[in-house]
Amino acid sequence: MSILIDTNVMLDIALRREPFFQTSALALAKARRAGPTHLCAISVTTLHYFLRKSLGESGARAFLGDCLKAMPVAEVTQNTLALALPSAMRDFEDAVIAHAAFQGKLKLILTRNPADFVQSPVQAVTPDAYLNLP
Q: Exposed, middle or buried by CB within 10 Å (0-12, 13-18, 19+), for 3?
């Protein structure tokens, strides 16, 4: 199953944020065993912004380099943005992530905030819920 990993899950892992780190890391590991895991293109820049504050520039770039080696990137095109703009989703960034997943034909979004993706064209689940799926 192809899955898009939301920015907040990657931040949990990179920054070892408690109480989310272990569940997010286990869910990512399970997702990677199940099939390709993707990052959204906009997540890469958002991750850099937050990671450099805690890990420094070199630490942020090293983490992102590892991610880019391990995971393909779901593209954000002009069409992705055009679909996200009129979306019923309240948060534009989440709408872009959802439509990038949709256009990339991904089956699931792994996020800690599934309520933000209720109007998403791709189902979203929490790391906890994903770990409980067969």
A: buried
Domain of 57: which CATH number?
3.40.50.1010
In the chain, how many domains are there? Answer: 1
Q: What is the pLDDT of residues 27-38, one digit of tens each?
A: 999 999 999 999
Domain region containing 34: 3-131
Please give the mean pLDDT across all residues of the chain.
97
Which residue type, as a one-letter code, is found at position 114? P
pLDDT score, position 134? 87
- Between the alpha carbon of residue 6 and those of residues 22, 64, 70, the distances in Å are 16, 14, 15
- Sequential DSSP letters for 60-126: HHHHHHHHHHHS-EE---HHHHHHHTT-S-S-HHHHHHHHHHHHTT--EEE-S-GGGGTT-SS-EE-
Distance between CA atoms of residues 34 and 44, nearest Å: 22
| Cβ contacts of 56-62, under 8 Å, gap ≥ 24 | none
Strand ordering across the sheet containing 108-110:
73-74, 37-40, 3-5, 108-110, 124-125
